[in-house]
Automatic annotation (TrEMBL):
EC number: 1.1.1.22
Name recorded for this polypeptide: UDP-glucose 6-dehydrogenase
Catalytic activity: UDP-alpha-D-glucose + 2 NAD(+) + H2O = UDP-alpha-D-glucuronate + 2 NADH + 3 H(+)
InterPro entries xref list: 6-PGluconate_DH-like_C_sf (IPR008927), NAD(P)-bd_dom_sf (IPR036291), UDP-Glc/GDP-Man (IPR017476), UDP-Glc/GDP-Man_DH_C (IPR014027), UDP-Glc/GDP-Man_DH_C_sf (IPR036220), UDP-Glc/GDP-Man_DH_dimer (IPR014026), UDP-Glc/GDP-Man_DH_N (IPR001732), UDPglc_DH_bac (IPR028357)
Lineage, opening ranks: Bacteria, Bacillati, Actinomycetota, Actinomycetes, Mycobacteriales
Organism encoding this protein: Rhodococcus artemisiae
Keyword hit for NAD: yes
Family, per entry: Belongs to the UDP-glucose/GDP-mannose dehydrogenase family.
Length: 442
């Protein structure tokens, strides 16, 4: 069954959701306040890099199921199902989430609705937000127009956004427990196709749905910081964290996924989400429950400092005047996202310590330049490595993992590589006469 859907916010989450909903056969309008972004999307061009998404965007625009608009009136008139996918960044100078954008969607949209509708929140929000938004919608929607707010958190990973949206591990829906299940009925229509594949569909109250999302990200962040804490111990003991991760990962209760030690987690989600979670827990009197997340955050940030320290050691104890090649700027491979990127942060710290830093990333160059204009940007791996005293691999793009040591041996000043993601084969580099170092490995 075809639904008429509006998606508010056409960033990494919203543009993916809009294109995937159209791919499922629905009629979709994507709404944003950023006219440059809309212009690109309208012409079938993605304003960011995400594998497989451009094809989906172009196909569904061409087939007439997907369009974009800056008009809330247009969206309110067109759609019966509304998804909120705007940003919820960390507040400046505070841990809490900035809900300005989510609130403004509700303030603008609710008064324009003239027939029954369901608003599904997908943005990651502090527990209690959906309930407040539902009350606000009640005040703002025209008399007699029944508008329900439900929460449908999103679990997609950048780099796998299309597959994660079309074939999610689970679909979680939080609804107002005093209502008669209409949001659930609508969600079942929207997700008819994935649900037919037997994907678990979990319906709960609004608060639990919000918490499922923040708890999932807190767990993932904790898992990464756990292995990075083990990495610190391995460094002190002269042991190998990669071997350790493989060995403990065979225990199915632990699992090998998300146990890659290195320079830690970044991006537009995990860092800000654990901080917002701590802030919200404090507001509701549960701060003690989440004090461990502060340590998770500290361990994570320490990895960046440690990487800078190892780079400094490799250049004789001072980075002043050193030439450092940085391979990778995105917070993870297969993405151009540099929000809170450990790679870029490390590149910046090294530059501040007096080195000349040359960065190359296959997709994140424009975004990096925008937020860090003072670094040198190269157009290839070879150019970045020209005259380098040390090469740092900070994002595990396939092209870096597959790099042959002798491809760059001729251009560097000294054959030193530091593997910030434990993604290279130490044996290969050492036998090509390189000095190889990594975090948490002897
Ligand atoms: N990026 C992900 O992988 C991912 C995955 C799951 C959940 N989330 C959550 O989804 C939300 C969005 O994240 P994102 O990474 O897509 O952010 P983003 O910054 O890429 O996109 C947000 C978009 O919202 C637009 N916007 C701002 N105010 C608006 C308004 N009033 N009306 C319409 N559009 C407006 C912005 O212009 C921007 O295009 C966040 O809460 C995030 O935590 C993100
Ligand atoms: O073993 C690992 C796994 C990941 N990372 C790092 O952790 C960060 C986050 O990686 P990942 O979780 O794959 O990327 P995101 O796209 O940010 O996805 C997370 O954040 C999204 C937004 O909330 C959620 O929807 C996803 O489920 C959740 O995985 C990146 O910097 C990775 O390099 C590690 O250091 N070690």
């Amino acid at each position: 069954m075809t639904c008429r859907i509006a998606v508010f916010g056409t960033g990494y989450l919203g543009a993916t959701h809009a294109a995937c909903m159209a791919e499922l056969g629905h009629e979709v309008v994507g709404v944003d306040v950023d006219s440059a972004k809309l212009a690109k999307l309208e012409s079938g061009e993605l304003p960011f890099y995400e594998p497989e998404l451009a094809e989906l965007l172009q196909k569904n625009i061409k087939d007439g199921r997907l369009r974009f608009s800056s008009s809330y009136a247009d969206a309110a008139d067109f759609a019966d199902v509304h998804f909120i996918g705007v940003g919820t960044p960390q507040k400046r100078g505070e841990f809490g989430a900035d809900l300005t954008y989510v609130n403004s969607v509700i303030e603008e949209l609710a008064p324009l609705l003239s027939r029954p509708a369901v608003i599904f929140g997908k943005s990651t929000v502090p527990v209690g937000t959906a309930m407040k938004l539902a009350q606000r919608v009640k005040q703002l929607a025209p008399a007699g127009v029944d508008v329900e707010v439900a929460w449908n958190p999103e679990f997609l990973r950048e780099g796998f956004a299309v597959a994660d949206t079309l074939h999610p591990d689970r679909i979680v829906l939080g609804t107002d427990k005093f209502r008669a299940g209409r949001a659930e009925e609508v969600a079942r229509k929207v997700y008819e196709q994935p649900l037919a594949e037997g994907i678990p569909f979990l319906v709960t109250d609004l608060s639990t749905a919000e918490l499922v999302k923040t708890a999932a990200n807190a767990f993932l962040a904790t898992k990464i910081s756990f292995i990075n804490a083990m990495s610190e111990v391995c460094e002190a003991a002269g042991a190998d964290v990669s071997f350790l991760a493989d060995a403990i990962g065979y225990d199915a209760r632990i699992g090998r996924r998300f146990l890659n030690a290195g320079i830690g987690f970044g991006g537009g989600c995990l860092p800000k989400d654990i901080r917002a979670f701590m802030a919200r827990a404090g507001e509701i009197g549960a701060d003690e429950a989440l004090t461990f997340l502060r340590e998770v955050d500290n361990i994570n940030m320490r990895r960046r400092t440690r990487m800078v320290e190892i780079a400094r050691q490799s250049t004789g104890g001072s980075l002043i005047g050193a030439r450092v090649a940085v391979l990778g700027a995105a917070f993870k491979p297969d993405s151009d996202d540099v929000r809170d990127s450990p790679a870029l942060n490390i590149a910046g710290q090294i530059q501040l310590q007096g080195a000349s830093v040359s960065v190359f990333d296959p997709k994140a160059m424009d975004n990096s330049r925008r937020i860090f204009p003072t670094l040198n940007y190269a157009t290839s791996v070879e150019e970045a490595c020209e005259g380098a005293d040390v090469v740092l691999v900070l994002t595990e793009w396939r092209e870096f993992r597959d790099l042959e040591p002798n491809e760059i041996a001729g251009v560097v000043r000294r054959k030193q590589v530091i593997d910030g993601r434990n993604c290279l084969d130490p044996q290969k580099w050492r036998s090509a006469d390189w000095s190889y170092r990594a975090l948490g490995r002897p």
